[in-house]
Design goal:
This protein is globular. Helix content is 40%, strand content 12%. Helix 1 packs across helix 3, helix 1 packs antiparallel against helix 9 and helix 2 crosses helix 8. The chain has one domain: Thiamin diphosphate (ThDP)-binding fold, Pyr/PP domains (Rossmann fold, 3-Layer(aba) Sandwich), CATH 3.40.50.970. With 276 residues, it is an alpha/beta fold. The mean pLDDT is 96.
Length: 276
């Protein structure tokens, strides 16, 4: 299903190209959530090119791994990863949010094959993932469930209900990845509602929980492919930077959904090309 896993250097180059596509797509559409897209793309690249057992040519394969992008406002990052993985042509990214496009502002599973569930309202992805993991257990299936959430999203109480259920049901086929960029719409997460100690909180709920550098491809690959702890769901708190890769966007709260001007698009693309 996975054609060939990418090494860290290959994955870094792939994600750099995907960052360019994200910036161009949002600039062209005059809409998007560029900060979170750039923080999560290394996680998505690692999943799609090294971890997920999926087949873009058969997106409904019953034995596929299930991936849920709960932070649905970062749809451009998801679409970009899917396009580069072969679900649809990269050129289709130019249709983002255009009339009749399959690429909505939030992912819709009725429009785009490969999107497991429609997301947008925050706090829904992990509960859906828990249900999918329970379903796999009931059917005695080997496929895995992966869910990516934003750290601001963890403030939603539905996540903690799902976390309790996952531990109670011993869902060792479930992996939660938290894009811990420490920013949400309007402010820093810890100034809105403190999340720390986040890793320890998940441990206290009965999860196998640990931190990882969300921009270190080797560390991500190692963490996501590590042996599972029997009977425990897994949580990776992936420390990232909002707007990673573009100096004037990185770690700036105003870039949650600010759109770059044509001049800023060019500047960002030049930075990525130079590897600044």
């Amino acid at each position: 299903m996975i054609r060939k896993p990418l090494g860290s250097d290959e994955l870094a180059e792939q994600c750099r190209e995907m960052r360019k596509t994200i910036i161009q797509t949002i600039g062209n559409a005059n809409m998007g959530h560029i900060g979170g897209d750039l923080s999560v793309i290394d996680i998505l690249g690692t999943l799609y090119f090294n971890v997920l057992q999926v087949n873009p040519e058969d997106p409904k394969d019953p034995d596929r791994d299930r991936f849920i992008m709960s932070k649905g406002h970062c749809a451009v990052a998801l679409y970009t990863a899917m396009a580069y993985a072969g679900y649809f042509p990269v050129e289709e990214m130019s249709t983002f949010v255009q009339p009749q496009s399959r690429l909505n502002g939030h992912p819709c599973n009725e429009k785009l094959p490969g999107v497991e569930t429609s997301t947008g309202p925050l706090g829904h992805g992990l509960p859906v993932g828990v249900g999918a993991a329970i379903g796999a257990k009931i059917q005695k299936k080997a496929w895995q469930v992966y869910v990516v959430v934003g750290d601001g999203e963890i403030q939603e109480g539905s996540n903690w209900e799902a976390a309790m259920t996952a531990a109670h049901k011993k869902l060792d086929n479930l992996t939660l990845i938290i894009d811990r960029n420490r920013l949400q719409q309007g402010d820093r997460t810890d100034d809105v509602t403190s999340l720390e100690p986040l890793t320890e909180r998940f441990k206290s709920f009965g999860w196998d929980s640990y931190e990882v550098d969300g921009h270190d491809y080797g560390a991500l690959i190692e963490a996501l492919k590590a042996p599972r702890v029997e009977g425990k769901p897994r949580c990776l708190v992936a420390n990232t930077f909002k707007g990673k890769g573009v100096s004037f966007i990185q770690d700036r709260v105003e870039w949650h959904h600010k759109v770059p001007s044509p001049e800023q698009v060019e500047e960002a693309l030049n930075e990525l090309e130079r590897g600044v």
